[in-house]
Amino acid sequence: MTKMIMITGTSSGYGKATADLFLSRGWCVIATMRRPDPSLFEASDRLRLLPLDVTIENSIAAAIEAAGPIDVLVNNAGVGGIGAFEAMPMSLIRQLVETNTIGVMAMTKAVIPQMRKRRSGTIVNVTSSVTLGDFPLAALYAGTKHAIEGFSASLAHELAYFDVRVKLVEPGYGPTTRFGANALVPVEQLLPGAYADFARPILESFAKPVLTTREIDVAEAIWDAVCGADDQLRFPAGPDAVALAQTH
Question: Whole-model pTM?
Fold first, then answer.
């Protein structure tokens, strides 16, 4: 029987690459995004696009009802935000927490009942390599991702009783991924003059990283999390994340 995977945030980046990978390997895929765009994917009778905003309770409920039975949920939707924490308005802080943390928890809560009743299923939460080290100018973003790391590690124990698995995928840094490119506010607006000298070498290192993560690296890590060893919780994705994990 063909398995069904639901992936959040599939309009680009990791989510799009993950949807393409699972489709190529014979899975049925429910690709969600706030504004579904069929032109993003090749037509397939194993693909469904659904609207979903993980910060809106009614949107989550409608998507889960429309999806039907789900074997795997990938919580990938997220937004970036780098800059001096002091300069971040509370509206931005709340928006990152609502999407990156509460949105993941809300989606997870929505699928647990069906998985628990079937005594099968996998939930994959995509975090970041910022959880594997101490990254300056990423205090808010790291906080939202560390929260999901702790949430997932604890939840894995309580859902294992019902044969439901919880996994973490930790992508490394990719210049085109959401860490910077998908930021809600340009980093320049979040670096007041007092931080200029401190931030300059850090931003230069962002622009010229030694190792970077590709979208396919993350998609493959999600595949391994879904299809791999039951006793492994964390799956670093990309050479930089793997290197950090080895020293963590």
Answer: 0.93
